[in-house]
Write a structure and sequence with these properties.
This protein is of the alpha+beta class. It has two domains: about 140 residues, Hotdog Thioesterase (Thiol Ester Dehydrase, Chain A, Roll); about 110 residues, Hotdog Thioesterase (Thiol Ester Dehydrase, Chain A, Roll). It is built from six helices and ten strands, in the order βαααβββββαααββββ. A ten-stranded antiparallel β-sheet has the order 1-3-4-5-2-7-10-9-8-6. The N and C termini lie far apart (about 45 Å).
């Protein structure tokens, strides 16, 4: 049975040391190109900028450590939602320390919903960003526990066209590149493993799609100023296959708040999403 006794337990700190090479590799992994000089050139005027969703990389190890301690079948764990809260700009090199807390485990009947919050600070102690990750552990529900709070609904205003739409084609090699950032699950590279999981081919990492959408938001409403993207939340609704085009659309619903949806020709892949930006 899932380890309910771990609720409230803290993990870490996890130490992540990186250089500008890691930052650029991440940006290339989420679709940046030579046209995005501020994100791919370490000597660009004004300095290399770090897209806030880079924060999922140093947080990944300790978040997954929480999941590994739950006593569940890891092949049945799905990454359901991801939120990043940007507190301060991420430097292009340094040492980051991340701590995580298992905030809750909720009974959803056929699955357990697991919420994990993390905080990442610089070596000097400055808080840079926070993350909230939600995982679904299939087959672990049904013990009669707390179903948890109802999730916020962030439906797009379907009655009007979006305020922006950015289409980005992923590379057929996108997952092969993105996995170098640390998520080496064979589901993203091994055709036989993917077939065994029920997919026609390896799928793109959900956090890679998350990064594609963040780049679209920065381009469309932030003039690529990474300091303006303050919060970004998504629900992973479907998979992306490397080579597909991801179109990110946003509807401004109030000052600084956009409802967001990302889709491929096959359907919506990021739903119930929103971004908060500084205007």
């Amino acid at each position: 049975m899932i380890r309910l006794d771990l609720v409230g337990k803290s993990f870490g700190p996890s130490v992540f040391e990186y250089t500008w090479r890691d930052v650029i590799l991440y940006h290339l992994g989420i679709g940046a190109s030579a046209q995005d000089l501020n994100f791919v050139f370490e000597r660009v005027k004004g300095g290399l900028r770090v897209i806030p969703t880079f924060g999922v990389i140093p947080a990944f190890e300790v978040l997954w450590r929480v999941v590994e301690n739950l006593n569940v079948d890891l092949q049945k764990v799905l990454h359901g939602e991801q939120t990043i809260f940007a507190e301060n700009p991420i430097p292009p090199r340094g040492k980051l320390l991340t701590t995580a807390r298992l905030e809750g485990i909720y009974d959803k009947g056929k699955a357990a919903l697991v919420q994990v919050r993390s905080e990442t600070a610089s070596e000097q102690g400055e808080l840079l960003f926070r993350c909230l990750a939600v995982f679904f552990c299939r087959g672990e529900g049904g013990w009669g526990g707390d179903p948890g709070p109802k999730g916020e609904r962030h439906e797009v205003p379907v009655e009007r066209p979006p305020d922006f739409a950015v289409a980005d084609q992923t590379s057929p090699d996108q997952a092969v590149l993105y996995r170098l950032m640390g998520d080496v699950n064979p589901l993203h590279v091994d055709p036989e493993f993917a077939a065994g999981a029920g997919f026609k081919q390896p799928i793109l990492h959900g956090l890679c799609t998350f990064g594609f959408a963040a780049r679209a938001i920065l381009k469309a409403v932030c003039d690529n100023d990474v300091r303006r993207l303050k919060e970004f939340k998504v629900r992973f609704s479907n998979v992306v296959f490397p080579g597909e085009t991801v179109t990110t659309r946003g509807w401004k619903v109030k000052p600084g708040l956009y409802q967001v949806k990302a889709a491929t020709p096959g359907g919506v892949v990021l739903s119930h999403a929103f971004a908060r930006v500084a205007e």
